[in-house]
Amino acid sequence: MTTISSAVASAEPRAVPKAKARNAALDRARTFLTLVVLLHHAVIPYTYFGHTDPKSWFGFDFVVTATDSFFMASFFFLSGLFVWPGLGHKSPWIFLRDRLLRLGLPFAIAAFTVIPIAYYAISLRYHPEIGFSEFWWKTITVGPWPSGPVWFVWVLLAFDLTASLAYRLSSHLVDPINRLSQRGFDQPAVFFLFLLAVTAVVYIPALLYFGGNRWWEFGPFSVQASRVLLYAAYFFIGAGIGAANFDRGVLSADGRLAKSSWGWIVATLIPYGLMWVMIYIKHEILGNPPVQPNWYLALYSLFFVAFSAAILFAILAFFLRFRRSGWSVLDPMQPDAYGMFLVHYPIALWLQYWLYSYDLPAIVKAAIGFMLTVAFSWALTRALRQIPGSARVL
Question: Cα–Cα distance between 236 and 179 in angstroms, integer?
Fold first, then answer.
């Protein structure tokens, strides 16, 4: 990952993005989020509600509720940070070529290989007689053809292309966000409230209209309908922060956010606790109805976006605070984090398939699954990156 050029002070002319260098804090945040994704998929079968393994542990419901609320939005935010400087330094065709190579090609390969291999493990649980070639052909010709977690890649590509068009219309479109980011250098709470307000406006009506379970699907192209605008908001707000003079904005290592990391960690507990109050109301008072009332969805989604914004700030504050702390355990994994995200899903599902019949506590199964998923996906990515030219993609 790379840093972004700094944000322009409101009284000064717009600065031209400078050459980019690595930013250890953002690298570590991205790698941490990758591990969160692997943890999320490692514990899902062992949740109490809707578990797919004979063993479950209620504590994993707390984990999944938390991770599902922020990790993908955070990825879009971090990705958005780098798009405006990239657009400023590259011609539209070079930018398009690079994005297709980095995002389009991996998505296409994963859709035809990684995803069918992953879901074959689930199919065998219910149809042990089916062979892989038959399953693969049925998946890509008849369907369903799920995308698994790699839906993120094609949606990010779509956002990048949209940003490219917006940049050609005017490179100053995100300047208001950039100016607000500068104010966030001393007052991160102001930028947090802006993020909260925007995401609440785009997410709450969408959830009320589409509900939480509707996905738009076309072959392997899928995305959760109620969250498309939420992810777009995180992406373009990130683009606004990264547009210029990064070292004087809300994500500056010398800013107030980096000095208040523990306060942001505490701030996440309030909306997260309220989310669980709403879950309790749904199950114990409303009787877990198949369709929740609009007032319930509106309140839950408000706490959802508040938690998502707060924990993003907590994660960024933590890594910004320790940016100069020297070596981190996350550093060796950083170059391989993207590849691990792409290849981990079949590893996770096949480990769960293998662990299914063992009479082990859910915590033990999840721990084994998580550690082996990390180890195998890291090793596989390292091996793939040895192929000539593959490091440009992975």
Answer: 14
Token pair belonging to 91? 């011609």
Q: Are the CB atoms for 319 and 265 separated by under 8 Å?
A: no
Name the DSSP letter for residue 9. P
CA distance 188 to 264: 10
In angstroms, the first-to-last Cα distance of the chain is 12
pLDDT tens digits, one per residue of 198-229: 999 999 999 999 998 899 999 999 999 999 99
Q: What is the mean pLDDT of residues 37-47?
A: 96
DSSP state, residue 57: -
Place of tokens 């393994």: 53
Give pLDDT tens digits for 350-359. 999 999 999 9
Residue 326: left (phi > 0), alpha (psi -120 to 50), or beta? left
Type of residue numbered 71: F
Collapsing DSSP states into helix, strand and coil, what is residue 129?
coil
Is the alpha carbon torsion for 85, 87, 88, 89 positive or negative? positive
**Amino acid at site 35:** L
**Residue 21: what pLDDT?**
59
CA–CA separation, 69 and 85 (whole Å): 28
Domain ranges, ordered by start, for the chain:
24-392
Distance CA 7, CA 9 (A): 6
Tokens 């777009």 belong to residue: 232
pTM score of the predicted model:
0.92
DSSP-based three-state secondary structure for 217: strand
| CA 83 – CA 239 distance, rounded (Å) | 6
Instruction: Give the model's confidence band at 348: pLDDT under 50 very low, under 70 low, under 90 confident, else very high.
Output: very high
Is the pLDDT reported for residue 95 higher than 60?
yes
Alpha-carbon distance of 178 to 174, in angstroms, equals 6
Residue at token pair 């749904």: 282
